[in-house]
Amino acid sequence: MTIGSPHDERDHDRGTEPASGTRRASGPFRFPGLLAAVGHRWPTLLALALAVATFADGLPAPEFLAALLVVMPLCYLLFGALRAELRPPRVLALQIAGLLGFAAVALTALAVDETLGLHLLAAGWLAHAVWDFAHHRTGKVVPRAWAEWCCVVDACGALAMTLLA
After folding, report:
1. By the 8 A CB rule, do 96 and 74 touch?
2. How do the pLDDT tens digits run along the chain, 165 residues long?
3. Would 36 disulfide with which of 5, 31, 70, 149, CB 3.0-4.6 Å?
4. Cβ contact 99:131 at 8 Å
């Protein structure tokens, strides 16, 4: 979405035009080239900054990483409830199944030796990045910016866990 645009990302992704027939704002609200691409990918930039800040000095405790793996799908349930996007019932069931699956990975990772546990957590975080990507593509349950941000954080976290385990 371009700042000043009369339509949102979902309209753009569906290929619909705003009522005025213009796709982009003009004047001081229009970003040229690279600045527009960077401005559009702000969730990715924030996610990269968080990933660097989190993993630059090594891995956090496995218990913390496992807890985050459970908190992430809880956030999706909260967003879905607040946005009233957990209907039909199969959507809620899928979100709960995701929560249970990620919780099972987290608990298993804490029950095995630390190196194997970190690799399991990395796999869980990578699976959650795929989960985020799917939500980003559909535009459902969570805001697209959140799904993009979370996908990048999860993928970077998985990579850091794999490399530092």
Report:
1. no
2. 434 334 445 444 545 444 555 455 555 555 566 556 556 678 788 888 888 888 888 899 999 999 999 999 999 999 999 999 999 999 999 999 999 999 999 999 999 999 999 999 999 999 999 999 999 999 999 999 999 999 999 999 999 999 998
3. 31
4. no
60 preceded by cis ω (within 30°)? Answer: no
Q: Tell me the HSE value of 115 on the side-chain side, using a 13 A CA sphere.
A: 1
CA distance 106 to 118: 10
pTM, entire model:
0.73
Reference 109, options 129, 131, 128, 125; nearest CA is: 125
CB within 8 Å of 12: residues ≥ 6 apart = 1, 23
* Residue 109: how many other CB atoms lie within 10 Å: 24
Distance CA 22, CA 75 (A): 36
At 1, list the tokens.
């979405």
* Residue 28: Cβ within 10 Å count: 7
The verdict on whether omega for the bond into residue 62 sits within 30 degrees of 0, i.e. cis, is no
Question: What span, in angstroms and rounded, lies between the C-alpha atoms of 118 and 165?
Answer: 6
